[in-house]
Design a protein that fits this description.
Blueprint: E1 2-7, H1 11-27, E2 32-37, H2 41-44, H3 50-53, H4 61-68, E3 74-78, E4 90-94, E5 103-106, E6 118-120, H5 124-133, E7 138-140, H6 146-152, E8 158-162, H7 163-168, E9 175-179, E10 193-198, H8 202-208, H9 214-230, E11 238-244, E12 250-257, E13 264-271, H10 274-295
Parallel strand pairs: 1-2, 1-3, 6-7, 6-8
Antiparallel strand pairs: 3-10, 4-10, 5-8, 5-9, 11-12, 12-13
């Protein structure tokens, strides 16, 4: 059985896709894989801030279209790059075990940054939370794949990247500090992989089932439900993080902030239904002032 895998061409995307391909072949010796490199809008435009380009979909749309058009059988995404709603005709066939969901500072630890330090990030979620923690900081935009961002790190006092991205490229040692979720709440689905396929492709769905990690899927679904309730994606200064406890309960923490970091709202809930929890956390934050922040 040949499975063609649509993927972006960045080093991180190829590392993730290669890992999925190797796992599929290991799980089923009858499976063969072929990569289908696909250039996305986000890869072509390396200058415009992501939230001005339309958010998460800029790294996913063309890859998804390759699957819908039959040029590929599955697509491998960084979970944080996916819009909160899956296009008609596609389904997320597997969420493998989650890697490190946290953010990382490269260049300097947070408490060692001098007053007025210049920090680069391409995420308004990160900028909002850093401005809340350190109102003295100044910010610069940061675009490009993880390798490009690391090359630019020396131009700033620090840059912020996903810890999982460093891990995929074997660059974890570059992190000056890993920021815990109670310091900086991660992006929705950060650290996860999402493997998409056509909804009616039963043969591929059966193969992907062996990649699934149920706890990671519950967290993935909870965080995406949070984002869908807000009505947006990474163009919002918002984040969410879910964990599954020892007894199987899910705890979902969510955040909405103002662009300038003057206001940051947080809320957490625990329970058994992951998606309901994600929606409830988002609804609470919207009712407690988050709606005005997002509309402002």
């Amino acid at each position: 059985m040949l499975i063609r895998i649509a993927t972006r061409s960045s080093a991180q995307a190829l590392a993730q896709t290669t890992w999925v391909a190797e796992r599929l072949r290991a799980l089923d010796p009858e499976v063969e894989t072929e990569l289908v490199p696909t250039e996305t809008t986000g890869d072509i435009d390396k200058v415009t801030p992501i939230w001005e380009m339309g958010g998460k979909g800029v790294f996913a749309k063309e890859v998804q279209l390759a699957v819908l058009a039959g040029r590929a059988d599955i697509a491998v995404h960084s979970g944080k790059d996916l819009p909160s709603r899956t296009p008609d005709g596609l389904t997320i066939g597997a969420v493998p075990a989650r890697r490190d969901p946290r953010d990382a500072l490269v260049g300097c630890r947070l408490d060692e940054l001098p007053p007025g330090a210049r920090v680069a990030t391409g995420s308004i979620r990160r900028r909002t939370q850093l401005a809340w923690l350190r109102p003295d900081l100044t910010f610069a935009g940061l675009r490009g794949n993880i390798g490009t961002r690391l090359e630019k790190a020396s131009s700033f006092d620090a840059i912020v990247v996903a810890a999982a991205a460093l891990g995929w490229l074997g660059e974890t040692a570059r992190a000056a500090e890993i920021l815990e979720p109670d310091v900086m709440l991660p992006q929705v689905a950060q650290g996860t992989l999402a493997v998409e396929c056509r909804s009616d492709d039963e043969d591929v769905l059966a193969v992907l089932a062996d990649l699934e990690d149920p706890p990671s899927r519950r967290c993935f679904d909870a965080e995406r439900a949070f984002l869908a309730t807000l009505g947006g994606d990474c163009s919002l200064p918002a984040g969410a993080y879910a964990v599954v406890g020892a007894e199987g309960a899910v705890q979902v923490s969510g955040l909405i902030g103002s662009l300038d970091g003057h206001v940051v709202l947080r809320h957490s809930l625990s329970g058994s239904n992951a998606c309901d929890l994600g929606r409830a956390v988002a609804a609470h934050l919207l009712d407690q002032g988050g709606r005005a922040l997002l509309e402002g």
